[in-house]
Design goal:
This protein is about 80% helix and about 0% strand. It has about 120 residues and is an all-alpha fold.
C-alpha cells in the first residue's frame, strides 16, 4: 500500500472512531416516533443497503477476477493438473458468488423493514 492510501485509511478510521461517542448518546425521551424520524430512518436504510451491496459486488468482482487469473496461470504452468485446478476454481467462484448473494439478501431485509411500525424504546 502506498503512503497516501495508508494515510487516507487511517484518517477514515479516525473519523469513524471519533464520531462513535456522539452517535452513542441517547436521544431525548419522546412519546412517539414522528413521521420525520421515520423518513430519516428510511433514508438511512437506503444508504446502508446501497453501501452493503456496492461493497459486496466490488469485493466479489475483484476476488473472482483474481481467482480466474490464478486458475488460468496454474493451468498454463501445469496442464496435467487442469481438472483439479478447474474444479477448485469453480468451487471457489461459487463460494465467492454465494457471499455476494448473502449480501443481497441482507440488503433486501434492510430495505423491507416496515418503517411505519418502528417505535424506539423511550
Amino acid at each position: 500500500m502506498s503512503k497516501k492510501l495508508k494515510a487516507l485509511s487511517f484518517l477514515a478510521v479516525t473519523v469513524v472512531l471519533t464520531a462513535l461517542p456522539v452517535l452513542a448518546q441517547e436521544a431525548a425521551a419522546r412519546p412517539a416516533v414522528a413521521p420525520k424520524d421515520q423518513a430519516d430512518l428510511f433514508k438511512l436504510s437506503l444508504i446502508v443497503g446501497g453501501a452493503i451491496i456496492t461493497l459486496a459486488v466490488i469485493a466479489g468482482a475483484f476476488c473472482q477476477a483474481k481467482a480466474i487469473s490464478a486458475g488460468c496461470e496454474g493451468i498454463s504452468r501445469n496442464p496435467a493438473g487442469a481438472p483439479t485446478i478447474r474444479f477448485l476454481l469453480l468451487l471457489g467462484l461459487v463460494l465467492i458468488e454465494t457471499l455476494v448473494i448473502y449480501a443481497l439478501l441482507i440488503t433486501i431485509i434492510i430495505l423491507m423493514v416496515q418503517w411505519g411500525n418502528y417505535v424506539p424504546k423511550a
